[in-house]
Amino acid sequence: MKKHLKLLLISSVSCALLTACGGGGSSSPSVTPPAPTSTAPVYRVGTFAAATSFKDRCEAPRAGRNDVAGSNLEEKFWLRSWTDETYLWYNEVTDRDPNSIDDRVAYFDELKTVRTTASGADVDQFHFNINTEEYEARQSGQASAGYGARFRLVRSAPPRDIRVVYTQSNSPGGAAGGFKRGDKLLVVDGVDAVNGGSTQADLDILNEATFPTAAGVEHNFTVLGTDGVERDVTISSADVVEQPVTETSIIDTDGDKKVGYIHFTTFSPFTSEEAIVTAMQEMAAADVDDLVLDLRYNGGGLLDVAGQVGFMIAGEDETENKTFDRLTFSDKNPTVNPVTGQTLRPTPFHSTGLGFSVNEGVPLPELDLDRVFILSTSGTCSASEAVINGLRGIDIEVILIGSQTCGKPYGFYPTDNCGETYFTVQFRGANDKGFGDYADGFLPNDRNAGFGEEVPGCTIPDEFKGALGDADEPFLAAALGYAETGTCPAATVAKTDPSKTLASTFSTGLDMLSDPRLAADEFLRTSRIGGVTDGTTAGKQ
Predict the structure, then answer these.
(1) Confidence band, pLDDT 50/70/90 cuts, at residue 3
(2) CA nearest to 238, candidates 170, 169, 147
(3) Which of 143, 155, 282, 437 is disulfide-compatible with 239, CB 3.0–4.6 A?
(4) Do β-strands 410-411 and 397-402 pair in parallel, antiparallel, or remain unpaired?
(5) Is residue 36 part of a domain?
């Protein structure tokens, strides 16, 4: 049975009735009624009313929801109290008067820490909000306009570098005449995609064609393939459902072993549970000796699905009575989850279906491996990193092939209020050994980066070459070589991984990521979402 978190909405209304009676000709003095008392909340620095006293009190109440008539000010007071009650670093947030900033989102943007990591990066790069209807549609796996092709903005401002990193089967992008992995966009609907887009109108053309908002619209591209040949691609957008697993393969090695390969793109939406279980069933049926789990473009998602992945790799004997991920909240909440009100319990290595898209209680396949190869880039984030950390916590050898991961041991429970869903960091995860200090990411140990948690493996630049799942694709080839020899390919360490530059190459001029839609897409791909373990609906609907 699905568990449901029920929020208690408390509202109080005080009412005073003043009745004055007098006879004609009375000499009694007239009584002037007092001015109505304002019901608007009053800001007092350091004093916080319960967040529930402002929850769902909306300036524009929605029909069919829990919303009641309220105000923009009450929405901001809810954000202030909710942050104080649940934010992991609540005591590092400047207590700002909700009256000082009119816009609720602009106010929310200020409610976070400014602390940095050892490398100088912001600790909290993950503060975010999105329209609730859009978020719910994404989580439920509804179709959305696109091509079934994943673009990577290696550089999003001129000179731009926009690549196709993979395509989905049975989609316009993956069909004959569509896109190929590694294609570089040169011209988009007549606009120079590399050096053009000097006006907002041109930038809008680039964004709309590359990340369409409507299905059934034809767009024209000139691309440069990895073979050095330019070609024209004319393609129509369609309503496409995201495919969490795009490729699987079984590779027979010279050492008479079988190596399984899975390209897993997301731990959300809910269909990711069925997709990864089906892929693991294929691996189990083939009785693979090793597994290469390709998470290089997997930004995260449902933490409970990550716990299932850990179980399926390691098996029951290694995971029984072990913790996959233990959540720690602020010092205000050492034993109770402030979002759910439940006593804190660790996320286990889930051995059965959880009801996202696999029936609850259905046993999961087991590979019973003592090591796993994980392919990574800076796009490997959140729940993907939880898999790395969780397996290392029970002494399953994790071998990292690629580059440094994003560094996000933190997560949240997306919370709706008045039509906007807010994400504020509420917990930090740690494995069975209590380790969770990887805010600068995991990285292969064949080079000294200075920051990050080192893991055995090889540094490989992602140059978007080769078909995913092909034994000759550079990442997979490096993993296969390491499995045989325990060594990395020569002359790879000094190269630069272009995928590391996604969010750090903003320059003067118009930047494609200035489009809120694209910023939202990047954020939602790197979300670590609390789930059913502690009785919430954050992962189930």
Answers:
(1) very low
(2) 147
(3) 143
(4) unpaired
(5) no
Residue 536 pLDDT > 80, yes or no?
A: no
| Residue 141 vs residue 305, higher pLDDT | 305
pLDDT surpasses 70 at 98: yes
151, 163 in Cβ contact below 8 A?
A: yes
Q: Give the rounded percent of residues in the chain with a pLDDT score beyond 70.
A: 83
Number of domains observed in the structure of the chain: 3
Helix residue ranges per DSSP H, 441-525: 474-485, 516-524
Contacts of 491 (CB under 8 A, 6+ apart): none
Mean pLDDT within 111-132? 90
Three-state secondary-structure class, residue 454: strand
State the pairing for strand pair 290-294/258-264.
Answer: parallel
| Of 313, 482, 498, residue with least CA distance to 403 | 498
**CATH number assigned to the domain comprising residue 466:** 3.90.226.10
Q: Which residue has the higher pLDDT, 539 or 214?
A: 214
Give the strand pairing for 347-348 and 323-328. antiparallel
Q: What DSSP assignment string belongs to 171-208?
A: STTTSTTS--TT-EEEEETTEETTT---SHHHHHHHHH
Q: What is this structure's pTM?
A: 0.81
Of 67, 96, 58, the C-alpha closest to 80 is 96
Residue 507 located in a structural domain = no
DSSP assigned state of 476: H
Asked if pLDDT for residue 171 goes beyond 80, the answer is: yes
Q: What is the mean pLDDT of residues 207-225?
A: 94
Of 423, 391, 393, 429, nearest in space to 525 by CA: 423
pLDDT reported for residue 35: 45
402 and 368 together in one domain? yes
- Return all residues near 329 (Cβ < 8 A) that are at least 6 apart: 86, 88, 337, 338, 344, 426, 427
| Token pair listed for 150 | 């994943």
Residues 286 and 227 in one domain: no
Task: Classify residue 136 as left (phi > 0), alpha (psi -120 to 50) or beta.
Answer: alpha
Token reading at 281:
């069933």
Both 196 and 226 in a single domain? yes
CA distances (Å), origin 219, targets 84, 147, 173, 194:
47, 11, 12, 17
Are 107 and 445 in contact, with CB atoms under 8 Å apart?
A: no
Q: Which residue has the tokens 């959540």?
A: 327
Q: For residue 88, what are the domain limits?
A: 51-114
The single residue listed with the structure tokens 């909340």 is 41
Going by pLDDT thresholds of 50, 70 and 90, the confidence category of residue 18 is: very low
d(CA 344, CA 327): 8
Phi, psi of 503 (to 5 degrees): -100, 5
- 98 and 216 in a single domain? The answer is no
pLDDT of residue 538: 41
Place of tokens 């990285």: 443
- Which two tokens mark 318? 């290694």
Instruction: Tell me if 361 is assigned to some domain.
Output: yes
C-alpha–C-alpha distance, residues 136 and 539, integer Å? 11
Query: DSSP letter at 116?
Result: B
